[in-house]
Amino acid sequence: MSTKRKLNEPSIQAVGLTKRYGSFTALDSLNLNIEGSKCVGFLGPNGAGKTTTLKLFTDLIRATSGEALVNGVNVHTRKKKALESVGTLIETPEIYPSLTPREALSMVAETRGVPAVERKTRIEEAVSEVRMDEWVDKRVGKFSKGMKQRINIAAALLSDPRIFLLDEPSTGLDPRGMSEVRDIVKSLKGKQRLIFMSSHLLSEVTDICDEVAMIDHGKLLVYDTLSNVTSRFSGGENVVEVGFLRPIDGGVNGRIAAGVPGVTSAERVDDRNLRIRFSGGASTQERLLSYLVGMNLGVISYKPASSALEDVYLSLIKDTK
Amino acid sequence: MSSTQVESASRVPSSLTQVRVTMKYTFLDYFRSRRFFILLAIVLLISAALTIVIGYYRPPGLLSSDLSFYSSWWGISAVLLTALFGIFFGGDAISGEFQNRTGYFSLSHPVRRSSVYIGKWLAAFLASSIILVVFTAVTLGNGVYYFGSSLPYQFGEAVLFTWFYLVAVLGSTFFFSSLFKTSSYAILVTAVLFLFAFNLIQLLVANFAQIEPWFILTYGSQIIGNVLMAQYPAHITTANGFGERTFTSYNATIPEGLAIIAAYFIVTAILGLVLFERKEFT
Ligand SMILES: Nc1ncnc2c1ncn2[C@@H]1O[C@H](COP(=O)(O)OP(=O)(O)OP(=O)(O)O)[C@@H](O)[C@H]1O
Ligand SMILES: [Mg+2]
Question: What pLDDT sits at residue B234?
């Protein structure tokens, strides 16, 4: 095993990580090395082994063989050290029902050693980040599922850790809540955090993740950057969606297709959005972006098409059946 | 949160601090929960009933000496009460973390499982102790009313032994609580054992097998009642039974009783901790 981990870069690492329940293999010799500040989406169908993986990384279950390391530290043998700077949200936890969010979060803050002078403000910040200010002094017992999930997210954010292990963080949240979670994760990325997040929402993953890992039947199928994954599995083509500030005319797509070598098609989704397919990876991407900006049409967004990830997902998952 | 890219300012505290934190919030949870007040109500009811009955009927046997007063009052209720503490505070303490999924909230942090176990145990001990203090106070109130403030030293011993027994009872119930993932099993087993099974086994072993039941916790707990007797009963008494058969009865000596209680605590605490350490959240 190579440990050429850069110092001070957050990392999580699975080495031959295996979990069996009797004769059933829930996780089959997972090898995964994630390093640096980024968001990694963890995808796979129901029962694929995502939660199992995350539980192994928080020592909620024990590996049959292999090990889970956080910043190079074995989570099972040295849990306290390994989880020092890890915020977690595994399988919609329940909070002691007679406590209020303020108390439950104080418990987390004290357990994790948030300095006493900062506790109050940290708790209030975390609670307001998940829009639960009104409820901070009400007992958790009567909260709805989504409200509890918001408090769980606040608990993960509370000690400002460097690594986040999140299991379907937007489960149970309303549409606004889901979008707020996306904003929270994006802002974490801006603060040099490593986020490893399971999700069934491909649009969410496309929107906020830099890399994806896909798993099925306990086996890792792929782990790569989002654009590599989508291009590798769409015959070397990337698909991006470009949004414009002003309505675009019908000729724009033709000009792009003709003007940028590597672009194979550009279709109008509506009058402010284009879907562009291209091959040639990063170099085409660079040309395309500068061409788009050069056209002065007010490019306001540029992202891999979520449908592209869906295509990859469906083809990969079908293949393993 | 506005901190910069440097390592976050949090530094995980010592396990001792984490034990204290768990204890504090578990206690808060107990204190807020109905069970604390149900137990308190039970204790107050028992106390009120005893106070009224004794005050009204003034049973001459019971009031013949301070020792016989404390013996009837404390000797009868303390052991039963302690069993209730175990059932109420210990039964679901650990199993609830699995069954109610609160473990996902309390354990997915840089904290040892043993710290959580010990913290919860201390919270249960504290909650039980508060109620036991109330019961002791009522007992003393009555005792002082009838016999003045000079207390028999045996009562002090009995109270001390009761607290010691509480330690073992909570140790055992926490063990059952980490043995089962379903709280109702843990509570049921605790209740059955402490309310009659131990006594029954003890009876069978002592009376029919004629073996000293030194391996039964309730045998050890008899020192609480025995110490309040005018004369501490003999360790082994052999009497002539029917015909040629002799009949032997046993009473734990104080050191023996203390040793049994201590052994139960130590063994169950170790087993409970090991079980909890190994248990999986599946
Ligand atoms: N205690 C257990 N005993 C037997 N099998 C188990 C146990 N716990 C989990 N499994 C199995 O392990 C497999 C992986 O489960 P896991 O919860 O990791 O899936 P997942 O990828 O998180 O799925 P989902 O998307 O539905 O959350 C499943 O097939 C599940 O049935
Ligand atoms: Mg899952």
Answer: 85
Regarding whether A296 and A151 lie in a shared domain, the answer is: no
pLDDT reported for residue B172: 94
| Complete DSSP assignment for B174-217 | HHHHHH-SSHHHHHHHHHHIIIIIHHHHHHIIIIIS----TT-H
* A173 and A217 belong to one structural domain: yes
The pLDDT value recorded for residue A141 is 92
Asked if A108 lies within 8 A of B109 by C-beta distance, the reply is yes
pTM over 0.90: no
Number of domains into which chain A is organized = 2
Residues of B in contact with A21 (CB under 8 A): 282
Interface test with A, best of B14, B19, B28, B105 (most A CBs within 10 A): B105
What does the pLDDT read at residue B253? 93
A220 and A238 assigned to the same domain: no
**Residue A1 pLDDT:** 43
Q: Does B13 touch chain A (CB under 8 A)?
A: yes
Tokens linked to B215:
């391996």
- What is the extent of the structural domain holding A255? 233-319
What CATH number did the domain enclosing A279 receive? 3.30.70.1560
| Closest CB to A93 among B33, B101, B278 | B101
pLDDT in tens, A87-113: 999 988 999 999 999 999 999 999 999
CB contact under 8 A, B10 and A115: yes
> Are A159 and A240 found together in one domain?
no
B-facing residues of A in 127-146 (CB < 8 A) are 129, 139
Asked whether residue A267 falls in the same domain as residue A302, the answer is: yes
CA A108 to centroid of chain Cα atoms:
23
| CA proximity to A106, closest of A72, A169, A155 | A155
Q: Is residue A4 domain-resident? A: no
User: What pLDDT band is residue B9 in, cutting at 50, 70 and 90?
Assistant: low
Domain match, A212 and A179 both? yes
Structure tokens at B94: 């650990």
- Is the CB of residue B1 less than 8 Å away from at least one CB of chain A? yes
Cross-chain Cβ contact A79/B3 below 8 Å: no
Q: Which residues of chain A have pLDDT under 50?
A: 1-3
Longest Cα–Cα distance of chain A, Å, equals 65
A31 phi/psi in degrees, rounded to 5: -120, 120
- Residue B83 φ/ψ region, left for φ over 0, alpha for ψ in the -120 to 50 degree band, beta for the rest: alpha
> How is chain B split into domains, by residue range?
13-278
| Cα–Cα dist A75/A84, whole Å | 10
